[in-house]
Specification:
25 strands, Rossmann fold, nine-stranded mixed sheet, GMP Synthetase, Chain A, domain 3, single chain, 26% strand, four-stranded parallel sheet, 484 residues, 15 helices
């Protein structure tokens, strides 16, 4: 098979590859460090990596991929119960971590391999990648919103296909320098944010902890791309009026990309007004890696996640499986995808794997969307939590959330449905007010939404909160809201 990381052997050894804070590795140093670790993994079938945001994590993952073993990234913030489930389910032979890492009891019971990232020798020896296209590269555990997390087995061909498709869509080359502060146990931060630059022969500068000052510093000193989640871009939008260096940094960036959840229109517009640059969005999942994106040479319209990436088939279907053929921006259907970017299976869960695919191989994403006349996709929410059936209408929570965020009295907003004897479901708004002393009331917000969207999309109930519950990727956890 072709190499996932040709730059490790074919490119200049002194080319910068990774930087975490004041620690950095060239391609030669990364190759040497990864080869040394890979040599100790030859007899393993599966290894876990303590995925803290540091150089050792990237060395460990690269080593696993070179050795042809499946890598299970572990979230350092996982609780004991979740961590115990993941380790029992994936049964790794080894856990790779930085020397001296503070590991919880569930991990300490396993054989530990220290990862040395501080190498001086850049003669790595053989760097042949010992695996085929269909062999598992990563096993990434889903967030487990409907039960224990499931391990999505991601083959090597899915990583190569997604990263090459994004290179086409984003005109991504080895000259690009990426900056981000994303966690490394998830496909956004690890596959796109680390393996992406390494496959292109470019470099990545990880912020450790995300700060707007860190973004400004890196983009103003040679970085060309920024990856983030909506929470990060919201903080950027809030900070822009008082941070001229941040305005300059974003104005000069080649590409600003947001993912993992929808970026509110209000934040899109504030960033564009201050910097003249549009944030582009893409759409993916753990199981599918990336499916669609706004192209670098396309129009970045707030609310759309662009068009299907090269090699990805995408369709919308009704509840009975009938394909939605209308590109009218209104007809809602569930997104189904096929292509080389898809995972192979849920580990040890043949039942869940079978349920996730149609008979002819389409993956059921559970995400609801519409197609615009130009073919671009606009996601309206998750089938389970964001699709509200009220008064005979199918309503996506996302557009109501965007409308609420345009109200000056609303700092954050989430929308859910709850049972209603008359409407079927009624629309419920969960609002963090800009001024807790004078929160906007139901009548004011309902009128605001009805004026912008349509009367049937107005909220019927409003709850005021101090903060919305979010996970590590900044996604709002709506099940926590719905169940009080």
């Amino acid at each position: 098979m072709s190499s996932l990381f040709p730059a490790l052997t074919d490119g200049p050894a002194d080319r910068p590859a990774l930087r975490f804070g004041d620690r950095a590795l060239t391609y030669g140093q990364l190759g040497a460090a990864a080869a040394a670790v890979a040599g100790r993994l030859r007899d393993a079938r599966r290894v876990a990596v303590w995925a803290a945001p540091e150089l050792e994590t990237t060395v460990a993952v690269t080593a696993g991929l070179l050795a042809g073993v499946a890598v299970v990234p572990l979230n350092p913030k996982s609780g004991e119960k979740e961590l115990g489930h993941i380790l029992a389910d994936s049964a790794p032979e080894l856990v790779l971590a930085a020397p001296g890492a503070e590991l919880p009891v569930a991990v300490r019971d396993l054989t530990l391999l220290d990862v040395d990232a501080d190498v001086t020798d850049t003669a790595p020896g053989p760097l042949e990648e010992r695996a085929g296209d269909e062999d598992p590269a990563l096993i990434v555990y889903t967030s487990g919103t409907t039960g224990p997390p499931k391990g999505a087995v991601i083959p090597r061909r899915a990583i190569a296909a997604t990263l090459d498709a994004l290179a086409d869509a984003w005109q991504w080359t080895g000259e690009d320098v990426l900056v981000h502060g994303l966690p490394l146990f998830h496909v956004h931060g690890l596959v796109l944010g680390v393996l992406g630059p390494l496959r292109r022969g470019g470099s990545v500068r990880h912020l450790g902890r995300f700060t707007t000052q860190g973004v400004a510093r890196e983009l103003n000193s040679g970085a060309t791309m920024l990856f983030g989640v909506p929470t990060m871009y919201h903080r950027i939008a809030e900070a822009l009026p008082g941070e001229p260096e941040l305005v300059k940094a974003l104005s000069g960036a080649r590409l600003l990309v947001s993912g993992s959840a929808a970026l509110p229109v209000h934040d899109h517009e504030r960033i564009a007004a201050a910097t003249g640059r549009r944030v582009i969005e893409r759409y993916g999942m753990t199981e599918t890696l990336m499916n669609t994106s706004v192209r670098a040479d396309g129009e970045a319209r707030p609310g759309t996640v662009g068009v299907p990436l090269p090699g990805v088939e995408l369709r919308l279907v009704e509840e009975d499986g009938t394909p939605v053929t209308a590109y009218d921006g209104e007809t809602v259907g569930e997104i189904q995808v096929r292509g080389p970017n898809l995972f192979t299976e849920y580990l040890n869960r043949p039942d869940a794997t079978a349920a996730a695919f149609t008979a002819d191989g389409w993956f059921r994403t559970g995400d609801m969307a519409v197609r615009e006349p130009d073919g671009s996709v606009r996601i309206v929410g998750r089938k389970a939590t964001d699709l509200i059936k009220s008064g005979g209408y199918k309503i996506g929570a996302g557009e109501i959330e965007n409308a609420l965020l345009e109200h000056p009295g609303v700092r954050e907003a989430a929308v859910t449905g709850e049972p209603d004897s008359d409407l079927g479901e009624r629309i419920v708004a969960w609002v963090v007010p800009a001024d807790p002393q004078s929160p906007p009331g139901l009548e004011e917000l309902a009128e605001h939404v009805a004026r912008r969207l349509a009367p049937h999309k107005r909220p019927r109930v409003v709850h005021h909160l101090q903060a919305l519950p979010r996970n590590d990727m900044g996604k709002i956890m709506k099940r926590a809201l719905s169940h009080g």
